[in-house]
């Protein structure tokens, strides 16, 4: 355990003054860097006027301006914004919107389809949609059933599409909930945009909704602002959090189409979208997110994302033939390397040993079992990245020798 006293750019600083490279952006929330100055300034400014403001019958400028700004940059056709405060809650909201849409339209549908290895949060609802295992076994009796698609591994894409078509034919599928292009916490599994486009086409054919969980993939991580745009599609519902405030404060948003919004009439109690939370649209968090939108407009963030993607590719290429890795892959700025160990997987016991190794090296890298991944803030330098890759190669070598 290390006690952190300060953060700066791509680093955490511990109480002994040591710099720790945050190679996973503190669970993928930090995009530009820790304490990015314009976002911190906006937070300071907002505290001059605001604390918390109830967000029911009362509104405020940061929430309104942010909603307009989000609609502007979101895939075209998303027209409304609902605020919450974490990745889990914005997905929970999305599930309720999808089920509410069909209920309110007089054609109730009950099934949610998800992808094998997906992760969408730790509330009872979102846990129900994720993988089952030791981490949620205690709650199993309360989790609801979902239909799971096989992961579209290379050569198996058609199986995924056929399975989805099969589920949809029941006429019971309200929505496909999916992480576009990269399934994060389930092992940084990557699949092509063409599969996502096809899934959307199937959903449309059966009047099912597509919920894009862009909690991890949003804000440039996969090379574009949102991953959905690489499949040239607009989801019916889009979930975003983490990079929404540049990672500075907790905030989340669920964006939806006019059709979904219109199915929820606030004047008709039987059709109201009943979801309220004390801190919905906290004005200081909204001001931070607004400042983040300005950063994207005023600073060359897209160029930084491209540069980081290229740096990652350059370091990844030589590892393709490294015998210690069973697979190495990249989507945009995200890189994953599967260590070739017996009994790999999310819970592989090499995970905690690797974490300790990297902690000793002052590197914040937290492998998912045998899957080592890098998702640094966009301000990381080539030299810093070199250190991370050198440590990863050393770790792989030492795991093979049995000394880690
Ligand atoms: N969805 C995805 C795709 C995520 O990666 C995460 C968090 N890792 C969540 C939802 C849940 O977000 P939070 O931890 O903020 O609740």
From TrEMBL:
Substrate binds at residues 27, 119, 242, 276, 366. GO terms for molecular function: adenosylmethionine-8-amino-7-oxononanoate transaminase activity; pyridoxal phosphate binding. The record marks 3 as: Participates in the substrate recognition with KAPA and in a stacking interaction with the adenine ring of SAM. The modification N6-(pyridoxal phosphate)lysine is found at residue 242. GO terms for cellular component: cytoplasm. Its cofactor is pyridoxal 5'-phosphate. Pfam families: Aminotran_3. It comes from the Bacteria. It is found in: Cytoplasm. Belongs to the class-III pyridoxal-phosphate-dependent aminotransferase family. BioA subfamily. This is Adenosylmethionine-8-amino-7-oxononanoate aminotransferase. The lineage of its organism: Bacteria, Pseudomonadati, Pseudomonadota, Alphaproteobacteria, Hyphomicrobiales.
């Amino acid at each position: 355990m290390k006690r952190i006293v300060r953060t700066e750019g791509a680093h955490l600083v511990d109480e002994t003054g040591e710099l720790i490279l945050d190679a996973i952006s503190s669970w993928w929330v930090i995009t530009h860097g820790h304490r990015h100055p314009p976002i911190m300034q906006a937070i300071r400014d907002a505290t001059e006027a605001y604390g918390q403001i109830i967000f029911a019958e009362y509104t405020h400028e940061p929430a309104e301006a942010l909603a307009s700004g989000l609609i502007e940059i979101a895939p075209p056709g998303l027209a409304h914004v609902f605020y919450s405060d974490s990745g889990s809650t914005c997905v929970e909201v999305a599930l309720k919107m999808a089920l509410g849409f069909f209920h309110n339209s007089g054609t109730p549908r009950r099934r949610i389809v998800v992808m094998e290895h997906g992760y969408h949060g730790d509330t009872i609802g979102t846990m129900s949609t994720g993988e089952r295992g030791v981490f949620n076994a205690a709650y199993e009796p309360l989790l609801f059933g979902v239909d799971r698609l096989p992961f579209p591994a290379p050569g198996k894409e058609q199986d995924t599409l056929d399975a989805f078509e099969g589920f949809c034919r029941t006429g019971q599928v309200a929505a496909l909930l999916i992480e576009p292009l990269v399934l994060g916490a389930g092992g940084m599994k990557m699949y092509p945009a063409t599969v996502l486009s096809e899934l959307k086409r199937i959903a449309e054919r059966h009047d099912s909704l597509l919920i894009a969980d862009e909690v991890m993939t949003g804000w440039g991580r996969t090379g574009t602002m949102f991953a959905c745009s690489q499949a040239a599609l607009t989801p019916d519902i889009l979930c975003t959090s983490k990079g929404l405030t540049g990672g500075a404060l907790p905030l989340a948003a669920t964006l939806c189409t006019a059709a979904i919004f219109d199915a929820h009439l606030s004047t008709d109690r039987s059709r109201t979208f009943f979801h309220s939370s004390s801190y919905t649209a906290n004005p200081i968090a909204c001001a931070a997110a607004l400042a983040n939108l300005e950063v994207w407009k005023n600073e060359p963030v897209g160029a930084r994302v491209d540069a980081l993607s290229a740096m990652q590719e350059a370091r990844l290429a030589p590892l393709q033939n490294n015998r210690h890795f069973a697979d190495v892959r990249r989507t945009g700025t995200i890189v994953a390397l599967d260590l070739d160990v017996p009994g790999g997987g999310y819970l592989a016991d090499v995970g905690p040993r690797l974490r300790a190794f990297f902690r000793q090296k002052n590197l914040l890298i937290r492998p998912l079992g045998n899957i080592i991944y890098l998702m640094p803030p966009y301000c990381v330098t080539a030299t810093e990245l070199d250190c991370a890759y050198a440590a990863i190669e050393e770790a792989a070598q030492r795991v093979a020798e049995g000394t880690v």
